[in-house]
Specification:
It is a single chain. Helices cover 20% and strands 30% of the residues. With 723 residues, the chain is of the alpha+beta class. Strands 5, 6, 7, 8, 11, 12, 14, 15, 19 and 20 form a 10-stranded antiparallel sheet that branches. Strands 21-22-23-26-27-28-29-30 form an 8-stranded parallel barrel, surrounded by 5 helices. It has a 6-stranded antiparallel sheet with strand order 31-32-33-36-34-35. β16 and β17 form a beta hairpin. 54% of the residues are buried. The protein binds (2R,3S,4R,5S)-2-(hydroxymethyl)piperidine-3,4,5-triol.
């Protein structure tokens, strides 16, 4: 070895980099994932953080010696692996060594596939990364395959593994329950493994969300500090593991939840794991959220760059009591308020087993001739007369045992063939087995039939009110029963892809009995999700705050509901209800005729105002200002147009205690060099002292505005325009 090589290897050892390593910098505009590959050795992750232009910029003290890109079980057995398999011959070990990298482009993104192979078995894993060039998100997944003589069983198969350099990490994640989804929880990661996983089977569920943020070196902060964010694009069971060692270094292992899901991989079959989308920001959690929002709008969400309609959903207005007259009246009343789309919710279908209660009818998707004798055609005509669009509710993955569908196809449900199925909602609900291609055709056919007969339907609310009980498939073979959790979702995605291909302009909402379908596995096929069955404006502030960490406002369906809320019994003024819903995708969830006459004018103006600010809220950058979780008595957030000329600011009183200090409302994201005119909008009595004042962006961000918000359930919206 000559002196230079000796010196180089010494330097590399010191920096923790191998001398003959190839350095791969996988970059987005502002971030880089640095992967180090030495042929015939373990593939390593050296760094993930702010963008670097050269590997030399990464200084490693040499302490982070174990940082594999995809650790396998069998040779190194003491750590939590990303993958664990049993080969055809019963051997449980796997050795994944770097071979080569395949690089390609997809749209404006660069795709890197690192090929790892076992020197003893014909077993291969491609560790894949897709780096977008217009947004700071990298999607990470794996493609697992083999050419052994017989099937190989996969027991663990993470989408990705990320060993972190930092050693004092805080986890932020969402947790909740039905009607209280998306609550924000934050904790320091201590030694041990923290696992967030779901077992709903059908949905990501109301309890958790497959997304998280890690703040490095300090407690989570909204606008500063280094934060990594991640969200798994999978609608089924998932697992997020945070493996923190004695020196508080954390490795992330994320992917499908492997519980009861061992996968029998046939020779030459490729098992593709769902993508974990990761991002990194030095602008705190807010920066991470904005990165996800941009990625969602530009690449992930259906119709992500289009504005959403203002809609009325019939559920809380009439529940199952739909009929022609009531629907017509709702459409007419809503149209007068300036609404753009009417959605007929549950209750419109079934004849032999009419949907009079929630215990019958699911599966029989023809119109109830008693309730709607003139059919859907007449409703569409009525919508047209009222100059609004028409949408409809379905729950296509489900069936009631009291239905003609169940009578015809009892073997289409999820159940073991020697047991009595456990029923869900209404005591009769069952889940259809979407691993079965015939069921997939049936589910596709529900939408296809509706759209063929009534091409004017412009929106579908797709509900899913049950989780998976009675684990078992009549369709899957005996040796592949453990594929059900996975194949259910593959079946679902196939159906959604067919719908999108045939009806590209159809808008759809993902509803999972409230917020159970809030995930990027399904969102490529949906314009939005129903964040919660809880429409209480006060509680919605917390729920919407939570989900906004990962999902853009255009996707967060937020509805103004009855004065006395049906879930909480709380009585909240109409303005407050509007002000909260206007920070997301505004809609209504009540009988519009129940709005008192003296408030109808306010409601009409509020819809008109929303239409004016809609481009900023739905397509702008979001800045969360004062968190409701900080218990300062108020909460506040704002949206800013990309050119920073227009902004909308929201403030809500969430608690009213005498002598409680209200902090100044310091804005974010404005151009410090621009001057903005402040204008209170959506008011009943104007309260903003600075109304029509011109203030610099610098002042608004450094000093903020003091607001006289008022008492309980008072709120304010301020429009800011550059002048
Ligand atoms: C649950 C949904 O979340 C509600 O909005 C409503 O659509 C009902 N299902 C209808 O059954």
């Amino acid at each position: 070895m000559n002196k230079f090589k000796l010196l180089l290897s010494g330097v590399c050892l010191l920096f923790g980099l191998a001398a003959n390593a190839e350095n791969y910098l996988i970059s987005t505009p502002n971030t880089t994932l640095f992967v180090e590959g030495v042929k015939g050795k373990q593939l390593n992750i050296q760094y993930y953080g702010s963008r670097i232009e050269s590997a030399d910029e990464v200084y490693d003290s040499g302490t982070a010696l174990w940082q594999p890109a995809y650790p396998a079980f069998g040779l190194e057995c003491t750590r939590e692996p990303a993958i664990q398999v049993t080969h055809a011959d019963g051997n449980m070990s796997l050795d994944l060594l770097f071979n080569n990298v395949e690089k390609s482009t997809e749209g404006n993104a660069q795709v890197w596939k690192f090929v790892l192979s076992d020197p003893v078995y014909p077993f291969q894993v491609k560790v894949c990364y897709k780096a977008f060039q217009d947004v700071d998100v990298i999607e990470a997944w794996t493609e697992i395959s083999h050419s052994e003589k017989k099937p190989v069983t996969l027991y663990k198969f993470a989408s990705t593994y990320i060993p972190l350099r930092d050693n004092k990490n805080w986890l932020s994640h969402l947790h909740g329950t039905w009607t209280a989804e998306g609550y924000l929880f934050e904790e320091e990661l201590l030694p041990g493994i923290k696992v967030i996983k779901n077992k709903d089977g059908v949905r990501n569920g109301q309890d958790d969300n497959p997304s998280f943020m890690l703040s490095f070196g300090q407690a989570p902060s909204e606008n500063s500090g280094a934060v990594l964010g991640a969200t798994l694009a999978w609608s089924g069971n998932y697992s997020l593991k945070f493996d923190t060692n004695h020196s508080r270094k954390t490795s992330i292992i994320a992917g499908i939840n492997e519980d009861a899901s061992q996968y029998v991989l046939m020779p030459k079959e490729v098992f593709r794991t769902p993508e974990l989308a990761i991002t990194y920001s030095m602008e705190g959690k807010g920066g991470v959220s904005r990165n996800f929002h941009r990625w969602a709008r530009n690449h992930k969400l259906a119709h992500g760059t289009q504005l959403r309609d203002v809609l009325l959903n019939s559920w809380e207005g009439v529940y199952l009591n739909v009929n022609q007259e009531v629907m017509n009246d709702m459409m007419s009343d809503f149209s007068k308020l300036g609404g753009e789309l009417f959605v007929m919710d549950d209750g419109w279908f079934g004849n032999k087993y009419a949907r009079k209660t929630d215990s019958s009818g699911l599966g029989d998707w023809e119109v109830d001739v008693e309730k709607l004798p003139q059919g859907i055609g007449a409703l569409i005509a009525s919508a047209k007369n009222n100059n609004i669009k028409f949408g409809i509710w379905i729950e296509p993955e489900m069936v009631n045992s009291k239905s003609e569908l169940y009578e015809k196809h009892p073997d289409w449900i999820i159940c073991q063939n020697n047991r009595t199925p456990e029923m869900g909602r209404g005591g009769t609900q069952l889940v259809l087995d979407l691993s079965n291609p015939k069921v997939q055709d049936f589910v596709f056919g529900i939408v296809d039939d509706l759209m063929t007969k009534y091409p004017q339907i412009s929106y579908i609310k797709w509900d899913a009110n049950m989780n998976l009980h009675n684990y078992g498939s009549y369709y899957l073979p005996k040796d592949k029963q453990s594929h059900l959790y996975i194949d259910y979702h593959r079946g679902l995605i196939k159906v959604l892809q067919r719908i999108q291909a045939k009806y590209p302009n159809l808008a759809m909402q993902a509803c999972g009995g409230g917020g159970g379908r809030t995930n990027y596995g399904v969102l490529p096929y949906f314009d939005e999700f129903w964040a919660s069955d809880n429409t209480d404006a006060l509680q919605r502030i917390y729920i919407q705050w939570g989900v906004s960490h990962y999902y853009p406002a255009s996707a967060i369906a937020a509805h103004v509901s009855a004065e006395k809320n049906h879930q909480s019994g709380r009585i909240v003024p109409l303005k407050y209800r509007f002000d909260v819903a206007m920070s997301g995708r505004l809609g209504m969830e009540m009988q519009p005729k129940d709005i008192p006459d003296n408030e109808k004018d306010f409601a009409r103006k509020a819809f008109a105002t929303y239409k004016e600010i809609r481009p900023i809220v739905q397509l702008g950058d979001q800045y969360r200002l004062i968190s409701p979780y900080e218990r300062q008595g108020v909460a506040s957030l704002m949206y800013i147009s990309e050119d920073k000329k227009d902004a909308v600011f929201f403030a809500y009183r969430i608690e009213n205690l005498r002598c409680q200090l209200t902090p100044p409302f310091k804005m974010q994201g404005l151009d410090p060099n621009k001057k903005y005119k402040l204008e209170e909008i959506n008011y009943i009595d104007k309260k903003l002292n600075q109304h029509e004042k011109v203030i610099s962006g610098k002042y608004l961000m450094e000093q903020g505005v003091s607001l006289n918000l008022g008492d309980e359930y008072s709120s304010m919206i301020i429009r800011l325009k550059e002048i």
